[in-house]
Amino acid sequence: MLKLPDNLPIIPEIIDGLPNISGWETEVLSVVNHNSPVFLPKTNLSLDNIQSGFAIALHMHQPTIPAGYDGGLISNLQYMFEHQGEGDNHNAAPFAYCYSRMGDFIPELVHQGCNPRVMLDYSGNLFWGLRQMGRNDIINNLKRITCDPTYQPYVEWLGTMWSHAVIPSTPIADIKLQILAWQQHFAAIFGWEALARVKGFSPPEMHLPNHPDTLFAFVKALKECGYKWLLVQEHSVETINGQPLSYKHLPHRLIARNSQGETISITALIKTQGSDTKLVGQMQPYYEAKTLNKQQLGDVLVPPIVSQIGDGENGGVMMNEFPSAFKQAWGDMVNHGGGKTGVVGFCGTEYLELIEASGCKPEEYTACQPVGQHYIWERVASDNIQPEGVENAIFELKQTNPNFHMDGASWTNHISWIKGYENVLSPMYELSSLFHDKVDTLLVDSTTAPSLTQQDNYRQLLLDNLLLQTSCFRYWGQGTWTDYAKEIYRRGEILLDKL
């Protein structure tokens, strides 16, 4: 059973109006770094009579913007409520309901004898924004299915980057800060025990870095922060030989090799197909799973899993069609196997713990790597990997292969998070560099590190640094959103002088 470290403090969710994103890093790492199973002791599923399964995740996010009273930081959701006549801001109330409704759906289905499963991915911005708006009703509804032992086995939270930063263009030094900030904020809201159960990670926009050093830093940070697996978009990875994945419904082993020749790996569940909320909104993963049968994985025959994630609030399908489709699918399962045999729903960690308990070994999962990396490793001698050789290979490839890039890959490959956004990226990298120049030497001293990260000025500066990396400032085009980014940079620059 899961055992927490002794004498963990109760930590506040909000400190002087700011989200609690720093100051208890030691406690966070002591809680998340364990190997105890989190679903296995409570699951009501047994692999013996399961043909196949599926796992769905709902991604929820609202950015933080400097658009409140006197330029204060507020949630974009709050702005939507306050400016109903602009764009699609009339959807503010439906969006708010979408953030809350799983707290109604799961208990309702459980009490009807169904066996539902759902994974939830909420950005730190969204958590903070809901609390800023006084929407305690939403937070409390989420607490119900997170902390109540009656409903907790049906719900899995996925970790993510606190401010919805796309990882390939996030400064490497800030990847772990983003991950830790989300973990600490989550613990402050839902408690340490709930945090200890967060073992899967959902990268914003399913954006996977393919630069060797960025990927290595990302996977290393995930493992140092206690994560066991991450969700990966199928088109963002390839086999070690550079081929598309041959079978996507079994776990893989994502290999990260850096320019020093170091290698690290982590389990990946493969999100199939592209970005289309209809896939989750109409419960397509369940119906696809019906067409699948058990597969050989190492020495074990296991049910395959169809993994999908979609925006949980965005678009008419999710707002209007998903509730009935979600409930209908679980009801259908009850009528075809009682919801526990045949085709079933899993949470990601639950599935991995079940198959590993049956004899599967993560080190035997089929290896994969980010798409395009085989071009690099074909040009670098495996027994002499050096940073200069890797960078030379990347430079040559960019000159000779018009399709080669190191921007990573995501479920929105028609959008670049880099091209055309130098006016956001340059300040973003500069603020990060200035931040680390200022604080890293202070953090080396273990006697001052905890007190520094608990200081208001540090927390505000860290917040500005993380907020500037929010993907939305590069998603909505030039204009208002890039202006928001410039303002956050300006404020961060001022704070640097106060630290």
UniProtKB/TrEMBL annotation:
Keywords: Hydrolase. SUPFAM superfamilies: Glycoside hydrolase/deacetylase. The keyword Hydrolase applies. PANTHER family: ALPHA-AMYLASE-RELATED-RELATED, SLR1535 PROTEIN. This is Glycosyl hydrolase family 57. Signal peptide: none annotated. GO terms for molecular function: hydrolase activity.
